[in-house]
Amino acid sequence: MRSTNAPNAPNAPTPTPLPPPPMAERGVTTTKPKRPPRPPSGRTNLASCIVATIFLIFIIIVILIVYFMVFKPQDPRIAVSSVKLPSFSVVNGTVNFTFSQYASIRNPNRAVFSHFDSTLQLIYSGRQVGFMFIPAGEIDAGRTQYMVATFSIQSFPLSSPVINVGPTLANGDGVGFDYGLRIQPTMEIESKLEMAGRVKVLHFFSHRVQSNAGCRVAVAVTDGSVLGFHC
């Protein structure tokens, strides 16, 4: 018995694809492109520059006021309190003695004063007869340091002594001495104390400061006593 195959059925029609769902249904949001920001106008730039300039000028003025009122470097203040000649002798018209000077040095700055290259010299009749270097050191801000300088003077010829009568000299306070009717030969010597160093302002700016103190000292030639001094 022959079997016959049924003819092939025609192909089923292909379904038409559906259009994609709208963007909102797919959870996607659309945004409009943003416009670039508008550049600032020329007037705004000019106003900003003026404000910045005024602010800088104000800061500079404040710094200068603080500097000149508080941190301006000042020279040290020297005050000589006493002058003595511990030893004194005159032999054959030449004089030999030891000179001592007591002084106080005040540092008026708000920073440490580092002193160096400081000297004390003694002058007689226009020429130097004694000289010494003062050791370097430091004086704290607003503090006072007391110093005693003592050194020996080599022999030098004594000029014609001056005869003083009456109150012709003054002491360190400017008060006259009254010698009465005492007449004695005297010699006059001059001491020059120089203090030099540096002060650091705000621990950064370094300034050199210097101070000098000169004194005229009257000495009795007979025994070497100090009759008076004026600085």
Automatic annotation (TrEMBL):
Residues 1-42 are annotated as: Disordered. The chain crosses the membrane at residues 45-70. The keyword Membrane applies. Residues 103-212 form the Late embryogenesis abundant protein LEA-2 subgroup domain. Residues 10-23 have a biased composition (Pro residues). InterPro entries: Lea14-like_2, LEA_2. Keywords: Membrane, Transmembrane, Transmembrane helix. This is Putative Late embryogenesis abundant protein, LEA-14.
